[in-house]
Amino acid sequence: MSRNSISTILQNYNNENAGVKAKLYQILMHGKLAGSGRLLILPVDQGFEHGPDRSFSINSPAYDPDYHFQLAIAGRFSAYAAPFGFLAASIDKFAGQIPVILKLNSNNSLTAKSQVPDMAITASVKDALRLGAAAVGFTIYPGSPKAKDMMEEAREIVQEAKSCGLATVIWSYPRGGDLSKEGETAIDICAYGAHIAALLGADIIKVKLPTSHIEQAKNKECYKSAQIHIDLLTDRVRHIVKSCFNGKRIVVFSGGEAKSEEELLEEVNAIKRGGGHGSIIGRNVFQRRWEDSLDLIEKIAYLYSAPC
Amino acid sequence: MSRNSISTILQNYNNENAGVKAKLYQILMHGKLAGSGRLLILPVDQGFEHGPDRSFSINSPAYDPDYHFQLAIAGRFSAYAAPFGFLAASIDKFAGQIPVILKLNSNNSLTAKSQVPDMAITASVKDALRLGAAAVGFTIYPGSPKAKDMMEEAREIVQEAKSCGLATVIWSYPRGGDLSKEGETAIDICAYGAHIAALLGADIIKVKLPTSHIEQAKNKECYKSAQIHIDLLTDRVRHIVKSCFNGKRIVVFSGGEAKSEEELLEEVNAIKRGGGHGSIIGRNVFQRRWEDSLDLIEKIAYLYSAPC
Amino acid sequence: MSRNSISTILQNYNNENAGVKAKLYQILMHGKLAGSGRLLILPVDQGFEHGPDRSFSINSPAYDPDYHFQLAIAGRFSAYAAPFGFLAASIDKFAGQIPVILKLNSNNSLTAKSQVPDMAITASVKDALRLGAAAVGFTIYPGSPKAKDMMEEAREIVQEAKSCGLATVIWSYPRGGDLSKEGETAIDICAYGAHIAALLGADIIKVKLPTSHIEQAKNKECYKSAQIHIDLLTDRVRHIVKSCFNGKRIVVFSGGEAKSEEELLEEVNAIKRGGGHGSIIGRNVFQRRWEDSLDLIEKIAYLYSAPC
Amino acid sequence: MSRNSISTILQNYNNENAGVKAKLYQILMHGKLAGSGRLLILPVDQGFEHGPDRSFSINSPAYDPDYHFQLAIAGRFSAYAAPFGFLAASIDKFAGQIPVILKLNSNNSLTAKSQVPDMAITASVKDALRLGAAAVGFTIYPGSPKAKDMMEEAREIVQEAKSCGLATVIWSYPRGGDLSKEGETAIDICAYGAHIAALLGADIIKVKLPTSHIEQAKNKECYKSAQIHIDLLTDRVRHIVKSCFNGKRIVVFSGGEAKSEEELLEEVNAIKRGGGHGSIIGRNVFQRRWEDSLDLIEKIAYLYSAPC
Amino acid sequence: MSRNSISTILQNYNNENAGVKAKLYQILMHGKLAGSGRLLILPVDQGFEHGPDRSFSINSPAYDPDYHFQLAIAGRFSAYAAPFGFLAASIDKFAGQIPVILKLNSNNSLTAKSQVPDMAITASVKDALRLGAAAVGFTIYPGSPKAKDMMEEAREIVQEAKSCGLATVIWSYPRGGDLSKEGETAIDICAYGAHIAALLGADIIKVKLPTSHIEQAKNKECYKSAQIHIDLLTDRVRHIVKSCFNGKRIVVFSGGEAKSEEELLEEVNAIKRGGGHGSIIGRNVFQRRWEDSLDLIEKIAYLYSAPC
Question: What is the value of ipTM here, to two decimals?
Answer without folding.
Answer: 0.96
